[in-house]
Amino acid sequence: MIKCKRAKKMMKDKLVGNFLQEFAMLWDYVDELRLKNPGSTIKMAVNRVTPHSPPHFKRFYVCFEVLKRGSKEG
Fold first, then answer.
1. How far apart are the C-alpha atoms of 68 and 62, rounded to whole Å?
2. 44-62: b (≥16 Cβ within 10 Å) or e
3. pTM for the model
4. Centroid of chain to Cα 7
5. Its domain of life (predicted)?
């Protein structure tokens, strides 16, 4: 039974670590989009249970400047 609990804890710790790494990559992706697509609207929303808790991904919105311009010009 102890081995099972230890294995469960190891997997949980691994998943949490993986989640944090992937979440950090989302911010890098947002920064890269802003750098390569000036004038585009890029928003990422996160939730926090408490002010000191880690953020949880909520939504991601992108509207490229080229598409904005294209819809305005017809």
1. 11
2. beeeeeeeeeeeeeeeeee
3. 0.64
4. 28
5. Eukaryota
